Every structure is written in C-alpha cells, then in structure tokens.
Amino acid sequence: MLTVQRKQLILQRLAAEGQIVAKDLAQELGTSEDTIRRDLRELAQAGKLQRVHGGALPASVAVGDLTVREGVSIDEKVALGRAGAAMIQPGQVVILDGGTTALQVARHIDPSLRATLVTHSPNVAVSLAAHPRLEILMLGGRLFRHSMVNVGADVIDAASRLRADLYFMGVTGVHPEAGLSTGDAEEAAVKRALHHRAAETVVLASSEKLLAASPFLVTPLRDVSQVVVPAGTPARTLKALRAGGVKVVTP
C-alpha cells in the first residue's frame, strides 16, 4: 500500500472509529509499527490528528484562533451559551473563560442579574460590561492573542485568591481517555488554576470538540462537574463521554 493510501485509510478509520492503535493497524496492513508511526507523525504535523501513546486520536478543529472559531458551530454555541447563562444564580461568584462559547454565555446573562463575574478575557469583560448589575473582576497577565485571554504567573497568582461557585471552562478537546485539553501549555495551566478555585466546573462543548484531543491536558474528564453538549449529539458519543466518568447533559 502506498503512503498516501495508508494515510487516507488512517484518517478514514479515525473518522469512523475515533482512534488508531499503531500496533493493530501495522499487523492488519502487514507493515511495521515504525511505518505507521511515521505516517501518524506526518499527519500530526499537518494538523490532521493528535498523536497519543500507542496511536492517535482525532485532532480538534477548535485550535484555530478566535477569528476562525467564531465561524464554527455558531448555532450550537448560542444554545450552549444560553444554557450556561441560565445556570448562574444571584449572588454567585462565577469564573468565565475566554473563547467564542464564553462570549455567548456573557451575551445571554439576564440583565437584572446581580453576581460577580471573573474573567481573564478582555473580550468577555467588555461584553459583560453591558450588564450594569454585575461586578466584573479581570485577571491580568500577558495577552495570548490567539485566544484573546491573559496567561502567565500573574493570572495564576490572582486565581489562587479566589473562591468561586462556578467556572465555565473552555477547551478544544473533550475525550474520555485524553481528558480535557487545549492547544497551548500556558493556557492549560491557567485553566487548571481556575478549575481548582471553583466549587463546580462546567464545560460547554460544541460538537467539533467532542471525542477530539489537543496537545496539552487541562484535567481528566471525570474531574469536572458536568459537560454540556449540543442537542442531537449522537448516542454513541454520549455513551463514550459518560464512560469517562462525567455527567453529560444537553441544553
């Protein structure tokens, strides 16, 4: 089998089965594991998959910058944002991550709500400013332009002094084995710090993030309170996520 044919087969299997085990595929095709690993490495470099120990998982298409992500799964993110906003109760301290879904949460908050919203995203803070009864706390640091969020030691230090009721965590990969992941190490560190300062962490995940993985782990799937996924998510996907030990709900 030619290299291009093997790579096409790998991508087809990933789409159909959700993972590749290098040893099994090598045996099936009668080739060496080194050959399969080389194919996986080259496909990973092209952004087509995410390598993991022993094989590969689908790469998240949500790792593009904010401008790119604004055009992905728009209707789903509106519905998820509305669902997230409805979870916020008066008087709570809520951490709102950066990203396009977090912006939808901000836009759907009840204008009469009195609460404290904490964010490390300038875009989210500006959107929240339209709600006159909200107390808005910004965590400052180095601006990571790719996601338009502040990252670094200053953000993590400020997070250490928080006690939040709820954290809406944004990620690019939601996978029962690979956990909750994102594409930047510093951003993942900030998300971990915020997660540890909240009584509950909720992930609002549009469909392109489900059963996909990115390079940097934030936390195992079972460590968050719940994952909210789009209505109409396939039963197979729901079952796989729930097998990761997390509560999965739809709006």
UniProtKB/TrEMBL annotation:
* An example molecular function term from Gene Ontology annotations: DNA binding
Q: Which domain of life is it from?
A: Bacteria
Q: Which residues form the HTH deoR-type domain?
A: 3-58
Q: Does the keyword DNA-binding apply?
A: yes
A Pfam family found in this protein is DeoRC
* Keyword vocabulary terms for this entry: DNA-binding, Repressor, Transcription, Transcription regulation
Q: Which PROSITE patterns match?
A: HTH_DEOR_1 (PS00894), HTH_DEOR_2 (PS51000)
SUPFAM superfamilies associated with the record: NagB/RpiA/CoA transferase-like, Winged helix' DNA-binding domain
- Keyword Plastid appears in the UniProt entry: no
Q: What PANTHER family does the entry give?
A: GLYCEROL-3-PHOSPHATE REGULON REPRESSOR, HTH-TYPE TRANSCRIPTIONAL REGULATOR SRLR-RELATED
The name of this protein is DeoR/GlpR family DNA-binding transcription regulator
Originating species: Piscinibacter gummiphilus
